[in-house]
Amino acid sequence: MARRLILRFGLPLGVSAGLAYNIISRLDKLPASHVASCANLQPESSTPSTVTAKTTVRLYSTAQSFPDFRKHTNVLAQYLSSDLYALLRDRQTPAGVTLDQCIQVGVDQPGHPRIKTLGIFAGDEESYQVFREVFDLVIMERHGGYTSTDKHPTNLDSSLVKGGYLDPDFVISCRIRAVRNIRGFRLPIACSRAERREIEWILKTSLESLRGNLKGRYTPIKSLSNEDLAGLSAEGFAFCRPSAYYSTSGIPRDWPDGRGTWYNYDRTLIAFVNECEDELKLISMLPGGDMKQAFDRFCEALTALQQNLRSQGFEWMYDDSQHLGFITSCPSNLGTGGLRASVFIKLPLLSQDERFPKIVKNLKMHKHVVAGMEDNGVYDISNADRLGISEVDTIQQVIDAVHLLVRMEKRLQSDRSIDHLIPI
């Protein structure tokens, strides 16, 4: 059906089904004569293809155009050779995204030897296929050897999570967040001002349609005074202009136009619209240790938002081949959409053990000291993996890890050994 529509309306072969439907649905707003003329257009080629890469003619050679990576330490510089650049530089996605747009942030931001940034963003859903030769290498590096033939599972059935109540004597709070993007629109580095505004309207409408304990309020960032914005930001309910790292990527363009914040009335669910790398960031958070309840609310909200989105004729970007999962601007967030399940946890004794970093790493977790609480041994513990593991398995992994960390802390408090508990 999608292919017939693409051929009928003269859209480039390789346009995703979602993009085709969105473009065609907007033809309803045009005069009938314009639609008829579009319908009479013939495609340039009928050769089947998953994504058609346009090409452009360059005035300068590859040697003249290739970025100077001599002082760079990011992942892009590690993998983008002159030969690979020559192969990809003249390609474009059906929406017109180029390789140079995708890599500009990595060219201008060389990275740091101790903090290895990726240095590449996708400009639209099709970027991952049109420029797959470089994206596959970056994905493999970031996601522990994830190959081009691996499959990503998706599972948002929160009823499958076990043991989700964490000891509140140790766990201060639970937080779950992920990002989503709408199929048929370019991603933030490439989207136009009009696209961003339409994305905001679609998400605002979907968020304001939530009911029950999910019901909340949407506020455009541009309607907030500096004082209001600072106050909401301090509470975690608003966001500020993206940092200098993103300045050359194009992400902060037109700030704060098309951006907004939403939260439900009991302030346990937050959404940021067009904040930075992605179109929607959804956050579920609760004080105490009830990770299961936080995940229940998170899944309920995502399910309702998906239904509201479909009622408007849209859907989330998702790799239908089940390879990359939910599509995001940064390759680091592919799969679960950057799902991050985290807890603030008090580990005053375990955190002083020299084996603590290894314990956390072996549990496939990340740890960060909570600012202002260093002396109390409070850490932010979260999952390390995002691609190749489902949402349910991610949450379960965090729950099991926290239970073990609490058990170790209790044993240390009673002067007992934890040697037999250390994960290998």
Automatic annotation (TrEMBL):
The keyword Chloroplast does not apply. Belongs to the ATP:guanido phosphotransferase family. Residues 170-412 form the Phosphagen kinase C-terminal domain. The keyword Kinase applies. One of its GO terms (molecular function) is creatine kinase activity. It is an enzyme of class 2 (transferase). Residues 58-144 form the Phosphagen kinase N-terminal domain. GO terms for cellular component: extracellular space. The gene is RvY_09321-1. One of its GO terms (biological process) is phosphocreatine biosynthetic process. Pfam families: ATP-gua_Ptrans (PF00217), ATP-gua_PtransN (PF02807). Keywords: ATP-binding, Kinase, Nucleotide-binding, Transferase. This is arginine kinase. ATP binds at residues 173-177, 340-344, 371-376. Its EC number is 2.7.3.3.
